[in-house]
Amino acid sequence: MAAARNKEFKLFGPCDECEVPQSPSVVTLSCHLSPEISAVAMEIRWFKGTDSVCLYKNRQVTEVRGYEGRVSLFTEELQRGNVSLQIRDCRESDTGHYLCQVTNGDTTEECTVIVRASWDILYFRVYQSNREWTEEERKKMKESVLLTDLTGKAKQLEEKTNIITERDRQLMEREKQVEEKDRLLTEKTATLQMKEKILEEKDKLLTETQDELRQTTKKFEENQKEMNERLESVNKQLKDKDSQLENQIKLLREKETLLEITVKQLEEKERLLSERNTQLMERDKQVEEKDRLLEERNKQLQERTDPDSAAPARRRNSKEIDPPDLSGETPESAAPLRRKNSLQDFPPDMSGESSSSASPESVPIAELRLVLLGRTGCGKRAAGNTILGREERSQAGASTVRQQSESRQGEVAGRQVTVVDTPDWFCPGLSLEELRQDVGHCVHLSAPGPHAFLLVIPVKQSTGEERGMLEKMEEIFGERCWRNTMILFTVTDEVQEKNIEEFIQSGNQEVQRLVEKCGNRFHCLSIKERDRISDQSNGDKDHEGKRRKEGDRRETN
Prior knowledge:
This protein is an alpha+beta fold. Among the domains are: 2-133, Immunoglobulins (Immunoglobulin-like); 331-392 and 403-552, 3-Layer(aba) Sandwich (Rossmann fold), CATH 3.40.50.300. It has 11 helices and 18 strands. The chain has helices spanning 2-7, 135-305, 307-316, 331-340, 380-388, 432-445, 466-477, 494-498, 500-506, 509-517, 536-543, and strands at residues 10-12, 18-21, 26-29, 32-34, 43-48, 51-57, 60-63, 71-73, 85-88, 96-104, 107-117, 123-129, 367-373, 406-412, 415-421, 452-458, 485-491, 522-526. A hairpin with a 2-residue loop joins β10 and β11.
């Protein structure tokens, strides 16, 4: 039953009408088995009318005269049931009805296909037809198939006859070659006998030569041994000299390294010496200024103690007795300020004091030096503009990160104010050498030393960077730096300014630790408003390092 099912199939032609271009001139008469079973073992016959065109039988394809070289089957696709016929160099005489017959045992299926040409023979149409073939036509088809089969067999017989004839010819040639080889073999046998005699003589000579070679080899080995011993001795000497040379090179490199270190130390000492000379000159100027102020105070004290000349002098100098205290402090607050400015691990001039700071009277500070610290984008530049009362527009390159500190000066509330804007010292990618160089540069810009550090922190969502700022501050300046440090919170609107207390209390613990480290000194600064510059002198008191009490944290400009 299963074998019967395998023999059951249908034959289908092209589904739709199609046009085939003439270039290249190929027309395919599509025909497939359904289901797609293998047609390799089947017999396939193609007819044009009643004339056979192509016959596939016993896995051999026979092309009828007139179609030789122009028709073919898709033999590689017979396994998938493709029994289509392809006609190359299609002509107008090739148009007409074509019949495809496929036989598998006792089952035969057929399909009729029509090929039509356009009026200008530019393309062909191929489609399936329902034509019924008469019995007479089918008889002619059988005769044509038999004739084609006989023609194919005749060709095969002719080919086999030609093959047999060719093989007979080749056999005769081989016999002649064997005879010739027998003759040559006889000649070569005689030649071989002669060569054997010659070979025996040469063997004798070879034996003598080998004896001489052994003696020569023995002498050569002795000479080679002697040369190896000499070479080993020379190599040992070369290794010793190489080792000595390497030691000398190593010593030379160490000396070069020491020389480079010494040169760098000398350059650093020269730089420090130059900075010290500059600082000493500035200190001398401050000493002269303080001596002058001290002389004026002494004169004022003399006038107060002299009853005869004190009255007119007081009238004349009523405005000169107490010069305006630009720091906003009393004499009692000046001393604590100086004590706070003696920062741990700072260069000698980072405290902002002169050598005559132990004067019996407090001298008003005529210049205020502030250092702004903070991360990139925290608003240091805008804070400095606000402190100096400036309005600077950010330029196209303003977003570029600065590589070193820079200072700006201005007069605020009757005193000279210097603001040193530092780069991001808290950046993880900043090397220790770069940090040291910029700290030295900052010291030079704020010579003889800053009065206060302003740690700028924007009022925004905490990013966890505050812990790194606390540790970095103590790493650079030591724990005593918090005595002269105040936190400057930058805000951009009034809502943030009003909620600064809530931001500190409910914010990150690291922010609270920073505020506590600074002795609860902080200030809220709007970096978008410029109408608070008139009250900047009150903020200057905080910049000089005056502590705030716990209940007076909030302060406005």
